[in-house]
Amino acid sequence: MTENEFRERFYPRARQSIPAARQFAAGAVADWGFFHRFDDVLLCVSELTTNALVHGVPPGRGFLLRLLLCEGAVLRVEVHDSGGGVPRVADVADDGGRGLVLVGASADKWGVGERDPGKVVWCEFVCPDSEAGREADSGPDSEPDSEPDT
């Protein structure tokens, strides 16, 4: 994947960072004209940044939101945090923790990558007008690249 353009912003470990990240993402998505998946992108930004804040960011640290518009009309959302552990998809019996279920249902694919320290949780959206979009419409891969720990 070759990135054409990206935007990123660092946020502190604070509740007001979630709406600020969503607003930042909305501006980037609008500037890039990626309107066909606007609501899905913002939902995933909300879920991934909330997960980072609640589960991934140690006290005194923050998280990085990076948005990449890539060749082939793919929009990638990445949330970097310095916390340990691997995100997991909630079981049906769990009282909460449906964020990654929503991400899996809304994005074309998602996954977890390593960084030192911490991890990168990402998701991608393919423009349906692109060649890659036609391939994704025929069978999107909404499973993570690596299996989360259960």
Structure, explained:
With 150 residues, this protein is an alpha+beta fold. Helix content is 33%, strand content 27%. The chain has 4 helices and 5 strands. It has a 5-stranded antiparallel beta sheet. The chain starts with a strand and ends in a 13-residue tail after the last helix.
Morphology: globular
Helix content: 25-40%
Give me the number of helical elements.
Answer: 4
Q: Please, what is the average pLDDT? A: 82
> What's the order of the H and E elements?
EHHEEHEEH
Question: How are the SSEs ordered, and which strands pair?
Answer:
Blueprint lengths: L2 E10 L4 H16 L5 H19 L5 E9 L3 E8 L17 H8 L2 E6 L4 E8 L4 H7 L13
Antiparallel strand pairs: 1-2, 2-3, 3-5, 4-5
Helix pairs in contact: 1-2, 2-3
Summarize this entry quickly.
The protein is α+β, with helices and mostly antiparallel strands. The chain contains four helices and five strands. Strands 1-2-3-5-4 form a five-stranded antiparallel β-sheet.
